[in-house]
Amino acid sequence: MFYQLYELNHAAMAPFRAAADIMRFAYANPLNPFSHTPFGRTMAASLEMFERTTRRYGKPEFGLKQTTIGDKTVSVREEVVWSRPFCNLLHFARNAPAARGNDPRILIVAPMSGHYATLLRGTVEALLPSADIYITDWIDARMVPMTEGTFDFDDYIDYVIEMLHFLGHDTHVVAVCQPSVPVLAAAAVMEEARDPLSPASMTLMGGPIDTRINPTAVNKLAQERSLQWFSDNVIMNVPWPQPGFVRPVYPGFLQLSGFMSMNLDRHLVAHKEFFMHLVKNDGEPERHRDFYDEYLAVMDLTAEFYLQTVEEVFIKHSLPKGELMHRGKRVDPTAIRNVALLTVEGENDDISGVGQTMAAQTICVNIPEDMRMHYLQPDVGHYGVFNGSRFRREIAPRIIDFVRQHSRSAVKPQIPRVIKGGRTG
């Protein structure tokens, strides 16, 4: 009943949250003399902190209305081009100049691990000037009625294959974190079937390909607990009156508590500084609001997908052992011969340890040497692998160069195969 109690508590707090919001506006109103005093600003800051810590954060928007192509600013239109019960495929259609030609088509597979696809807004924004971008927009499991059936690890792989078929020839796929395993599996399934629409390249970023290498706290937790423990302690049924009523899920609020507990001291310091900035009225809080509006927006995962991911990826290590199954048939990474492979890791990644993603280079033994590359980005953690200034400056240009080199209709320039910290290995 824990999920139901959580919902009941949220509903019970609603009138208090509304009152706090009204009072905050009153204390912050410049026509109120108290708003110009330390007392007034302290009251407004306290009320905002209360409102923000008790609200449910809805799904954010990408909000990418324009991009720069060459020296021109062009408009961007967000559109759903493919849809299934648990996922929409979004296309960021650019109003590119006719003389631009065909930029590479990239499918970004966002993590289905608690946060919405908008967590990759910076990833999309950095690649958009140089590529035609599509992204998986996974749907909150609590919003999917039971009549739509289940969604498990096999379904995830099938979705990726279906999207690659929809997008067609010469599509490049970029998997960020958790999707690295199902994306590699999808490529292997397509290659073994000699599918002509297999991706031209796959870029795996900070993904748990082999979690036996440099295990992190996340990996150790999965090793220390049985699958039954996860089933008994984190799987709950969606409460009424949500559309997914009675669907067994791993709730978003539990995932969020896990995310935050890993760096609790950092979050406490950030909120303390946020409060002080509000009191000082120095204009700094906006960055805090933007980050936490995104970070605190979470979604539920279907129980079957979550438990299978824990078992196959973190407990049994099925993919690197050659034991991963899809629809009753073994997934064979050695079948991948025509898909170029780029792996990207962060030096300080505390979610997917250094070497876990690079393991894909080892298990995909039949990819030619001139079709593979590894890059280790110094001084970044997990988030910095796909977002932030170093991503924009160091990683995104390498992804674009790699994709262009391995386009199946392009003249292929030579680029370094193994790069560590910007130096050729």
TrEMBL record:
Superkingdom: Bacteria
Domain PHB de-polymerase C-terminal: 206-406
NCBIfam families: PHB_depoly_PhaZ (TIGR01849)
Protein name: Polyhydroxyalkanoate depolymerase
Organism: Rhizobium leguminosarum bv. viciae
Taxon lineage: Bacteria, Pseudomonadati, Pseudomonadota, Alphaproteobacteria, Hyphomicrobiales
Gene responsible for this protein: phaZ
